[in-house]
Amino acid sequence: MQLSVKHLLGIRDLTRQDIQIILDTATQFKEVLQRPVKKVPSLRDVTIVNLFFENSTRTRISFELAEKRLSADSINFTASASSVSKGETLLDTVNNILSMKVDMVVMRHSASGAPHFLAKHIPAAIVNAGDGINEHPTQGLLDAFSMREKLGRLEGLKVAIIGDIMHSRVAMSNIYLLKKMGAEVTVAGPPTLIPKYIQEAFDIRVEYNLKKALQWCDVANVLRIQLERQNQVLFSSLREYSLAYGINKQLLDSLDKKIVIMHPGPINRGVELDSDAADSNQSIILQQVENGVAVRMAVLYLLSGGRELS
After folding, report:
1. Contact at 8 Å (CB) between 19 and 188?
2. Is residue 2 part of a domain?
3. What is the pLDDT averaged over residues 220-240?
4. CATH code, 46
């Protein structure tokens, strides 16, 4: 099984078949993770650098664990503890790392397009772990994997993406992927947090009424309010947002069907999601975290390009 791409820069670059291959490979790796010995020698002698210019907990740990499970050699790099803080350019940083014979780079950066820039200038395979407000492809893949695992399909599934669509790279990756795999998508939230162009550009529904969106969908993927990326006031207060768009168990129980609740994390409990909803039996949030390791193992394994492994 071979991907049509050398890098994972975004879901928009993947074909439907690429997505299918990644999800099917992740299924095999999830079986590996259930064994007493959770390690395989698939990437022995492959060196991967985790290049994080933005804070991250779940994504960074998930990639590190995936690399260890594949027997890769991994190097962890954080910008605050490096020469970047002394003014070194991105390209110089990476070239210095590559001179140490690195095969793959997992990169998170606050600038949209940073991984694409690197992919044009260096020979190593690049995995985008989130770039600005552009994409977060492995999160989109693990969300899709979790939906397919829970509901048995993506084709024809009704998925509502709720919250701060404007600033969410997770939303973009989810929209690209779900549309390619034949799902129906609605975005819901305050008008100030939904880009005006999105309905026409992506051929998706826009809903400003939370209950209507929840009543329509099979899956609600709830996004964090990203205050750190908002350079102006886009709603009156977190309390007002919670009253209009926060999801709690009472609201879920008022629907005439059971829907699946997802969240890419970290959760602002009491804002977009109350604890009684986040921790309910309708939530698959912890399964998403678990599935993230298997999906990232699949991505790293497939992007190793059939390299000869000793």
Report:
1. no
2. no
3. 73
4. 3.40.50.1370
The number of angstroms, rounded, from the C-alpha of 162 to the middle of its chain's C-alpha atoms is 15
Residues 37-75: tens digit of each pLDDT: 999 999 999 999 999 998 888 999 999 999 999 999 999
Residue 66 belongs to some domain of the structure: yes
Tell me: is residue 215 an annotated ligand-binding position.
no
When pLDDT is cut at 50, 70 and 90, the band that residue 230 belongs to is very low
- Ligand-binding annotation for 224, yes or no, is yes
Question: Whose CA is closest to 245, among 267, 276, 274?
Answer: 274
Q: Is 139 marked within a binding site?
A: yes
Domain residue limits at 115: 11-135+290-303
AA letter at 234: L
Percent of the chain with pLDDT over 70: 92
Q: Are residues 70 and 209 in the same domain?
A: no
Q: List pLDDT tens digits, range 98-127.
A: 788 899 999 999 999 999 999 998 889 999
Provide the number of structural domains found in the chain. Answer: 2
Please check if 58 is assigned to a binding site. Answer: yes
Q: Per the annotation, does 263 bind a ligand?
A: no
Is position 86 annotated in a ligand binding site? Answer: yes
pTM for this entry: 0.93
Tell me whether residue 1 is in a domain.
Answer: no
State yes or no: 138 annotated in a binding site: no
Are 50 and 99 in the same domain? yes
Closest to 290 in 3D by CA, of 100, 121, 81, 149:
149
Radius of gyration of the chain (CA): 19
Is 265 labelled a binding residue?
yes
Both 121 and 163 in a single domain? no
